[in-house]
Amino acid sequence: MDRSKSSAGARRSLDDILEHHGILGMKWGVRRTREALAKRPKLPSSADHTKAHDTAKVVKRHGTRAVSNQELQTLVTRMNLEQQYSNLSSKSNQGSIKKGHAQIKTAVSIGKTANEVHSFVTSPTGKLLISGAIVAANAAKKKAGA
Question: What is the 3-state secondary structure (H, E, C) of the chain?
């Protein structure tokens, strides 16, 4: 390849050039944390929830006298439904989990105790204790029979 033609080859077409100008609105040198990247955007609230939330704000600031009977009834109904849903979902899951956890804990403790007894009985100390108990029982039988 001839080096004298390098100036002609230095001119490139616009298709060969890659340029990057960043992302619109992005701050240079600012990085988001893993927690910020993991956060999901909030889902839009339903009309019922928004109405009940607004009524709850008014009641909190000015009391129940500041809202109409219908607004108060809507708020109470919404709060009752949310409470019922919360109770149903938490009781059904947590109750069964707690029961299962208690049963497994009991089974593990029984197995642990049985394993400890077996280990003790098969140890030299356990064998000596058992033979001593047998000797004492035989001596008690002779004494009771004589």
Answer: CCHHHHHHHHCCCHHHCCCCCCCCCCCCCCCCCHHHHHCCCCCCCCHHHHHHHHHHHHHHHHCHHHCCHHHHHHHHHHHHHHHHHHHHHHHHHHHHHHHHHHHHHHHHHHHHHHHHHHHHHHCHHHHHHHHHHHHHHHHHHHHHHC
